[in-house]
Amino acid sequence: MDHGKKKQNGSTTKLDMDETPPASAEEIREEAKEIAAKLDAVGISLLVIDTESKFLSTGFAKEIADAAHGHYYYLPSANDAAVTMATQQVISQLRPM
């Protein structure tokens, strides 16, 4: 296997990592939302715990949860007890009665 190489015109040349421009923040956001939607499509439930302060919040965690039709919790002062409580609440909602 030739890691770091690509075929070009029948010959193998070294892949120049500088050839590929880095993804923009918007491209990364869209890809993350696409992945979240695919999780939902295959039946995986997503729990997103947002720990960003509202002052600095981008809203991206909520967008991911929405794309996956998942569960969203805003816990800016999250500690282990708060995360455990949110997780247990979601699990109890998912269990069949």
Please give a structural write-up:
The protein has 97 residues and is α+β, with helices and mostly antiparallel strands. The protein has helices spanning 25-41, 60-67, 80-94; strands at residues 5-8, 11-14, 47-50, 71-74. The strands form two sheets. Strands 1-2 form a two-stranded antiparallel sheet. The chain has a two-stranded parallel sheet with strand order 3-4. A hairpin with a 2-residue loop joins strand 1 and strand 2. The longest helix is centred in the middle third of the chain and has 17 residues, at 25-41.
Brief descriptors of the model:
alpha+beta, single chain, 41% helix, 3 helices, two-stranded antiparallel sheet, 97 residues
Q: What about the largest sheet?
A: 2 strands, antiparallel
Distance between the termini: 51 Å
- Summarize the amount of helix as a percent range: 40-55%
Spatial order of the strands in the main sheet?
1-2
Low-pLDDT windows of residues? none
Element-by-element helix/strand order: EEHEHEH
Give the total of beta strands: 4
Q: What form results from the Cα inertia axes?
A: globular
> Averaging pLDDT over every residue, what do you get?
84
What proportion of the residues form beta strands (DSSP E)?
A: 15-25%
Specify the number of helices: 3
Secondary structural class:
alpha+beta
Radius of gyration from the alpha-carbon trace, in angstroms: 20 Å
